Amino acid sequence: MDIFSHGLWSYVIFNKKDKWKAVLSGILPDIISFGPYFVMSIFAGSFTRGKPGLDSLPSYVFSLYNITHSFITFVLIALLLYIITRKFYLWLLAWPLHVFIDIFSHDASFFPTPFLYPISNYRFSGYNWAHPKFIIINYILLIIAYVYLSANKKRNKDDKPERDNNRNKLNKKRNKKV
User: Fold this and answer.
1) What residues make up the domain containing 60?
2) How deeply is 152 buried, as exposed, middle or buried, from its count of CB atoms within 10 A (0-12, 13-18, 19+)?
3) I need a surface site. Which of 9, 32, 34, 99 has the fewest CB within 10 A?
4) Do 142 and 97 share a structural domain?
5) What is the pLDDT of residues 44-82, one digit of tens each?
């Protein structure tokens, strides 16, 4: 899946708290994998739009992709963060969401996802995310999700005064009993 969709889906799924950390976590596997190559190709003047040929990519891109698109790597990093902070960050789950989506949205011809790397090199050949049909369905679903979030946010905002009023009444009843 494209990096923008990963960010947008991360926002949809983790929109309550720390949503921007979730968005970053959701796009981080691709930023780490492709970001250095992207930046270097811009500065070298060799950047071209569209899907690059696999033979034109340096080997470190594949190594970084293997590492960042693995559930094993995620578990090790999440465990390390937990040991250091004694907290589990829910927003960090956008990373394995990214990997899960990529398992099914990458086919064998272009970066199939090594989700069990380094334990196994097994890769599932899914549906190519760059196929127009996939792109159209993905963005239609994203539009539906954002319309739902927007409507839900507006409804919650409209209901807030009523909820606050009910809460105040309940607090007054409790204070009378005391």
Assistant:
1) 3-129
2) exposed
3) 32
4) no
5) 988 888 778 888 899 999 999 999 999 999 999 999 999
* 162 and 75 within one domain: no
Q: Which residue has 């954002």 as its token pair?
A: 146
Q: What is the DSSP string of 129-150?
A: TTSHHHHHHHHHHHHHHHHHHH
Residues 113 and 169 in one domain: no
Contacts of 119 (CB under 8 A, 6+ apart): 72
pTM: 0.82
Q: What's the total number of domains in the chain?
A: 2
> For 101-136, what is each residue's pLDDT tens digit?
999 999 999 999 999 999 999 999 999 998 999 999
Number of alpha carbons in the 13 Å side-chain half-sphere of residue 60: 7
Contacts of 167 (CB under 8 A, 6+ apart): none
Q: Cβ contacts of residue 116 below 8 Å, gap of 6+?
A: 70, 71, 72, 122
